[in-house]
Amino acid sequence: MACKTCWNKMPWAFEVLAVVTSLVLFGALAAILSAFDGKPIFDSHALTLNTVVATLSTAAKANILVAIANCIGQWKWILFAGAPRRLLDFERLDQAARGPLGGLNLIFNTKVANA
How many Å apart are CA 102 and CA 112, to the nearest integer? Predict the structure, then answer.
C-alpha cells in the first residue's frame, strides 16, 4: 500500500524511471562499444559482443518507447478532453507512436494552440 501512495504522489515517476533507465543502458552500450573499439571481438559459445549490443539497444529502445507512448496517450487526453477536435488529429497522434514520419506529420500538421 505504501508503494501505491508513492506512485500517486509522483504521477510521472514511472516514465522518468523509464527514461533514466534508457539513458543508463545507452551509456552502457556506448561504454562497451568504446571498450572494444579496435580490439578483437570476444566470441564464446554462450555470449558474443553482438548479443550484448543487441540486448542493450533493444532494452534502451523499449524503455524510451514506454515513456513516449505514455506521453502521447496523455497528449491525446489533454487535446480531446477540453473541446471537440477533428478525428484527423487523433489519427496523427496515433501515427506519431508508430515512427518518425508520423512524428514529423504530427509536429507540422497539428495545431496545439486550440487545445
Answer: 16
